[in-house]
Amino acid sequence: MQRATARASSLEASIELLSSMRFAISLLTVLAIASVIGAVVQQNEPANAYLNQFGQFWEPVFASIGLYAVYSAKWFLAILAFLVLSTVLCIVRQSVPMLREMRGFREHAREASLRLFARHASLAPTLPHEARRGAVTAYLTGAGFRFRVDEREDGVLIAARQGAAGRIGYFLAHAAIVLICAGGLLDGNLPLALQIRLGGKSPTSGDQPLARIPASARLDPDNWSYHGNVYIPEGGSTDFAVLNVDDGVLLQSLPFKIALKRFRIDYYASGMPRRYASDLVITDSDSGQSFERTIEVNKPLEYRGVTLFQSSFDDGGSILRFALRDLAPGARPPHPLDGEVGTRLPLAKFGYGYTLEISGFRPINVENIAPPSDNERFGSFFGSGAQTQNGENLRNLGPVYSFKLRDEAGQAREFNNYMLPLEIEGRKYLVSGVRASQAEAFHYLRIPLDSDGKADTWFAIRQLFFDPERRAALAERLTARMLDTSDESTMRERLKETAENTLALFARGGLAAISDFIDSTESAAEHPASEEDRQRAGAAFIQILQGLIWDAWMSAREASGHDALEIGDEHAQFIRDTLIALVDSIQYGAPLYLQLTDYKHRQATVLQAARAPGKSLVYTGSLLLALGVFAMLYIRERRLFVLLKADEALVAMSSNRKTIDTDETFARHCTGIGAILGAACTNNLQESP
Amino acid sequence: MNLASSPATSLSAPPAEPQAAQGTKTAPAMPSARAEWLKRRGFGDWFYALALIAAAGIAFLRYGEAMDAYETAILAIHVPILAALGWAWRPFRLFAAAAAVLSLLGIWLYQGDLARAEQIFFLKYLLSSQTAIAWMSAFFFIATGAYWLGLAARSNFAERTGSVLTWAAAVMGTTGLFVRWYESWLLGPDIGHIPISNLYEVFVLFSLFTALLYLFYEGRYGTRKLGALALLMISVSVAFLLWYAFTRGAHQIQPLVPALQSYWMKIHVPANFIGYGGFALAAMAGIAWLPGPQRLSAGRLPSQEVLEDVMYKAIAIGFAFFTIATILGALWAAEAWGSYWSWDAKETFALILWLNYAAWLHMRLTRDARGAVLAWWAICGLLVTTFAFLGVNLFLSGLHSYGSL
Ligand code: HEM
């Protein structure tokens, strides 16, 4: 018996605590702090990302306390649950007293307690006694008060109140919190977690053919809450969404089939994307009837409880036509080669031990070239905010295609090429970026274009230049050009020999090999070489190389039936660029160059399919919350008491919020009532206890 | 707090000092509230209301066929809102009029040709958006100086100058934004958009709202003594604004990324900045409340009672609008990102901020909340606000597509 009461009281105590305002405050604060973690730690990243970030030791620790998915972590949900519980209890406990407050007028308030009010004043009415009550009630109704009159032996108390709706605000706002949390819970990933726990569902690896995805990883259409991505290539269609669940995927089948007719990107004049839109055909799986609809960002489509959003886009398997240019010595004409983005082509049939993996293609590629200088900006600060040069210098560089070349060993090099020649310092180049690993930045090979805007000349030169069979001929040619037959033969022999060696060295290791050679010969010589000797030697070799380039160029022209050019400065730049490109091409690390000649672009849209049954709850909750908060904060509850006695009128006011304007209002009403009772209101604020 | 206890007894009234009394003006007695209310509407009020109706009418007649239902509704709703504002807060009428006239003048001077920004004298040196915003910044800086002078030298004149300049700054800022809006349309019909779409523009908005809020309370409590701190706050944000413009060229009008092309933006963003403005102001009141400043200023700052009241009012209005802003944000997110709440960094910090001030409000309701706690809390609140407003864009990645520095 006693224990029972004890338990009861302890229960009461805990309810008391849970529903106490202090507890609410601490909850709100704790929740706020907890949310910070989730905002600061990147959520739901792949595990290794965290490993890099936090290291071997902390990564698992943080994982165990769910820092990588805070908002679905048990402890976080627990805090939320507590907030809801506490709010509920609070509402429950408040309801009775608050309703009493709202309805009651406290017309039985005793004179003594009125005189203790913070705001009260005592008037000496001159109005005849019988007229007072009527006058006061008239004033109160006029001022928007509702009142009740209490006759007592020594007079009448008129108890009036105003703004009780503020209390309703309390109920609205706090009930709203509960609604919103409930709705949020329905739409959160808790339902999915439950299906995985109890429904025997389990995510599987993403990169496997559809057919192979087991039933355990498929969710049926009537699943009532999910968020998934839908990938559709142009001309293709699908009827499922992919849910990414901790490093795996689940397939959510949709109650309809989505076909993509076309994905469109509109651009501003500056080249910035203006609009992403997908022209869809939706076909209902049950009724079989279908309709067309275009959705775009901010313009989703809702059908059969599922909402489709334009979320992203991708390449849908564009067809690229390449000219495969051979970089190995020995003249070979470029091969045509077709490939689809996202596929792998073994290049064995062209005689290369590589597989080509075409990874990406973008037909329009706007890049920011040379942002303006600061003083430019300063100048443009004043005036209109619409300077034509809008903070940056955007230019469309045309199609970009990226691919990997993987050798038998499985080592891959990644390439990022521009289809169109880029203009750099007024000269045009064919540009190809290459890197050996994701970590590196791309190194760019810039192939100079010849006078008729083609890269052919460079490739021709290169093939001659690195071809051992041709060295003798090139050297011969150079010597013939440099020295005329009158010079004695030893000298010509020396030059020819040096030229041949230079080619050999260059083919072996580019300029590095040559400078090594210089060092070795210098150190071999008896007297140590000074720096400028080395400089001179280097310059000499560069001259020879440039000369050889010229000769290679000319013999290539002859081979292709063009006549030789006059040697002159107008060619100097081209030869310099050619040399640089030759040097870079040694590090290029691929026996071939893939030049994009033509393409058939095919895009894919990435939609998000969402089913959020809690939405309606959350929205109604939000509405109530807004109304409630405004009501609570701006409908001020005021209670005005006028005690009419034989020779005195006692005016007192109370409010449930302690703000200065309460005093103001009291002063106003006091004077108002004073005026109609024909008495001055001596404001008694000061003498409050 | 025994929540059941009657407010009358649960209320410990502020021992009202002359300071507190400052705020209380005694109006003449009126038989009926409604009559009284009507009587208080002067000629100016009616004229102002009519002007609003006329303006809306003209706008509708001229551009009605180009407007869709939303726009018509928005246009219509502006009349009562602005009327209410102007009636409840007289100086606002003049402000609205001045801003309207200057904006229209600026727009008219353009004659649909951006190049005129450089050619027409008034555009070049006064009304083109950037110049107007530059004027705003200048006025804010000088106003700050004036308020501080007033505080230091106990000079009413300096303080009055301060508030006049603050009003002027607000007018120029508003004009700047409206003209900028028009300029964006001149850039191209597909580019035109309301200038609250990137960090630069919202910083102007923030300075503007904070200034207006401050000016409102200045009139409400009949004391200019908070000006020094409030304007300091504004000057800091203006300084950032200028730095951001000069180093990043942020002031140049950029077309909207698809995610931002939404009606929600038009209300979500301003609501947010009323919130931030309120919180910022409350923090300044909090600083002024602290014993240190109170002692140093030797009674030149408003009394703690007034400051507590300002804090409450500012946080209340901030909280109310921030609630709306967050809800609107959720509605928008539901449309743009496919889910009304994605725990994106900006969202999360909005929630944090909101919870923080919800806690503050409850704190104030509990009887044992000391003024000091509330003051300090309001000050720390400003840190959270700043982070939610700026820090998130600086340090955290997220879906929010504008305002990355
Ligand atoms: C996220 C959760 C909550 C929010 C956003 C919230 C919001 C508010 C707001 C804005 C006010 C008005 C404050 C004022 O007028 O100065 C208020 C008052 C109040 N809150 Fe909460 N509240 C929350 C949770 C709670 C909880 C859990 C309790 C339970 C202890 C609670 C109890 C109260 C009470 C008793 C009042 C005073 C009502 C009155 O006197 O009219 N609140 N709340």
Brief write-up:
Chain A is α+β, with helices and mostly antiparallel strands and 689 residues long. Chain A has 16 helices and 26 strands.
Write up this protein.
Chain A is α+β, with helices and mostly antiparallel strands. Chain A folds into 4 domains: 98 residues; 105 residues, Sirohaem synthase, central domain (Double Stranded RNA Binding Domain), CATH 3.30.160.110; 132 residues, no CATH class; 248 residues, no CATH class. Chain A is built from 16 helices and 26 strands. In chain A, a hairpin with a 4-residue loop joins strand 25 and strand 26. In chain A, helix 6 crosses helix 16 and helix 11 packs across helix 12. Chain A is elongated, with a radius of gyration of 42 Å. The two termini of chain A are 46 Å apart. The mean pLDDT of chain A is 85. By secondary structure, chain B is mainly α. Chain B contains 17 helices and no strands. In chain B, helix 10 runs antiparallel to helix 11. Chain B is globular and about 60 Å long. The N terminus and C terminus of chain B are likely disordered. At the A-B interface, helix 2, helix 4, helix 6, strand 8 and strand 11 of A face helix 1, helix 2, helix 3, helix 9 and helix 10 of B. The structure holds protoporphyrin IX containing FE (HEM). Protoporphyrin IX containing FE sits at the interface of chains A and B.
Descriptive tags:
heterodimer, A: 689 residues, alpha+beta, Double Stranded RNA Binding Domain, 4 domains, seven-stranded antiparallel β-sheet, five-stranded antiparallel β-sheet, 16 helices, 42% helix, B: 405 residues, mainly alpha, disordered N terminus, disordered C terminus, binds protoporphyrin IX containing FE
